[in-house]
Amino acid sequence: MANFNLREMCTGLIVPVAAIAVWQMFSSMGWVNPLVLPSPLAVVRKWFEYLAPTEAYGGGNWLMWLVSGELIRDTMGSMYRVVTGFVVGAGLALPLGLSMGSSQRVYAWMNPLIQVLRPIPPIAYIPLSILWFGLGNPPAIFLIAIGAFFPVLINTIAGVRHVDGIYLRAARNLGASQRVLFTRVMLPAAVPYILSGVRIGIGTAFIVVIVSEMIAVNNGLGFRILEAREYFWSDKIIAGMISIGMLGLAIDYGVTRLNNHLLRWHRGLEN
Fold first, then answer.
1. Smallest Cα–Cα separation from 184: which of 206, 205, 212, 163?
2. Alpha carbon of 241 to those of 117, 225, 250: distances in Å?
3. Could you give the residue ranges of the DSSP H alpha helices within 52-136?
4. pTM
């Protein structure tokens, strides 16, 4: 398994490495304006400058000095908003999705409202979020919660409503009560759908946090990219984008591993 993962990772690196090599070649030959598209080496240099601890930190704690770098502080700020907003959004979506999926009456009451609100992108709520919450973390967390809410909700509803009828009939024939039917049959069968919604919701939350940081807060990866744009620091813009991509890859990998661990019993994941 380890060899297979290593081989798969090496295969996945072929295209990015080739693209970076072509990019560096074009930059070295002067075919692109370095102010518009800096070379990969310039971007890497700026990324390490962005990561480096600040010399201005005057505290005596070496750990605090180590995390005083601008990139570390921005990443911590973005991750705080992502985690908080996702917990709020998913925490509201999960019980509502379970209720709508298991009860036709609740579904009939709530579905029209959900279908009206669902197509509205979180970005459209930016003016209202600033009016309601002002500036800072609250409007950003509100927008992230909206972005995470609907993927978790829709997948939870779908998971509960698409439980195979054979399982339900078998449980009823064995005398299972409605509570046992829900907790021992419907909910476990819906877990793969719910976890897929969680993965999509986290991805959406990470997209929304970048947009919200460009509007409502004064730190974070999105804010730093907007700041770099105003000063035409294109190398820092790309360094920030690469940081977002690496962080998103790490989050997706972690969620995928968690899903595989929780779904060991599911068909195709026994090994």
1. 163
2. 30, 8, 14
3. 62-66, 70-102, 104-117, 126-133
4. 0.80
